[in-house]
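Collaboration report, partner site 2.

Our partner group contributed sequences for two proteins of shared interest, and the home lab folded both. The records are reproduced in the order in which they were received, starting with the first partner submission.
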Amino acid sequence: MDCKTTSRRLGAYLDGELPHAGAAAVEEHLRQCPRCTAELAELRALSHALNGLEGAAAPSGFAARVKQAALARQEVRRQPVMLYGAPRARAMNRVLMRVAACLVAVAGLWVGMSAGGSAFAGNGQASSDATQAAEQNEFDLQMASLSAAPPGSIAEAYLAFASYDETGGQGQ
């Protein structure tokens, strides 16, 4: 056994906490190592000094107050946390929020279907022309935001491809 391992086990050896084989290994090392033997002597002297001290008396009622505080703290942990009211009210709020979200989604779909349906009502050619005009207007707005692109930039390359596609492969 080496000094480091023996040093870590000296306290347990002194208190009689090592199994027989462990205690025998420490004793074998102590017979050969004066440094660890000196460390054991220091630990024994410290132990005797500490055992000779009188213990401090706790104030009257100290144990009862500690126990009462521990029980009170334990009781606080058992109570449910009430951030937004009773747990049942919070559960109901979650259900209502989900129902409201579903209603908003359904209303959005209904509005979208209504708006889309009106574009296709009546003359098919008129709705197709209106759709193309809207798409052209959107394309023109996108191109206007990129028109001040510096030479050699990605925006300029995008404009070149977009204008090439717009003119049917003819370029501007």
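Second partner submission, folded after the first:
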Amino acid sequence: MRVRKRIILIGAGGHSRSCVDVIENIGIYEILGYIGTESEVGMFSLGYQIIGADKDLEELRKSCDLALVAIGQIESALVRKRIYEDIQSLEFQVPTVISGNAYVSERATIGAGTIVMPGAVIMPNVKVGENCIINSKALLEHDVVIGDNSHISTGAIINGGTTIENECFVGSGTVVREGVMIGQNSFIGMKSTVTSNIAANSRYTRIYQ
């Protein structure tokens, strides 16, 4: 019988519950518990306990090798990025987690700390960076590049040859035209249609009726 490696989830909100579901279904890891706020310690979510806060990670590292950032990302990537850097500095191993109900081409590359949710489709020559969320039913067509610490939200369609730089958010139901470049730290609102390049640090929402 295969021994499952224990993993800690950093975060105890809604996104962490989605992460739990994926991790349970792939059956590779044993969830030790969550890291939450001081006031949440001792509480339970989906049958797993919040076993500590950020200050406890160094001690928990002695009994657990793996950790995953399980905090969502909409307005800013800063919190996920900081936590990812913190767990790396403590020498946690950070796995790539892919739902068994996602399609990921063998010719795609998915970075450490990234989670690919159910129904996502990732096609050949796609490169996804570290600490990303590729959410449920997102489509990344051939030759797409997604930078580190980015979130491609539910049902987004990223057409071939698009580059989305580090620390971006692409909202649910958005469609991005092929070959477009979206600059670092940009926010693309829900159901937007992106047909031309977007400069870094942009907030963009354009919905065609």
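Feedback sent to the partner group on the second submission included the following. Helices lie at 14-26, 57-60, 78-89. The longest strand covers residues 29-35.
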